[in-house]
Amino acid sequence: MSLDEFFDDLGEERIAKIKAATMDLGPAFAKAFREKAPNALDLSRSISCG
Hints:
The chain has helices at 3-16, 27-36; strands at 20-21, 41-42. The chain is mainly α. The protein has a two-stranded parallel ribbon. Helix 2 (27-36) links the parallel strand 1 and strand 2 (41-42). The longest helix is centred in the first third of the chain and has 14 residues, at 3-16.
């Protein structure tokens, strides 16, 4: 299942409830979240692992 299919399965109402997301995967995942769940806070940019 692609991330686009995942968001399609979730539907608009559940996507709107996403508050935050963190990911360490490729840029395609970040792009999909920005496009499909633009209101979700991207925590991966605010967490320092060093």
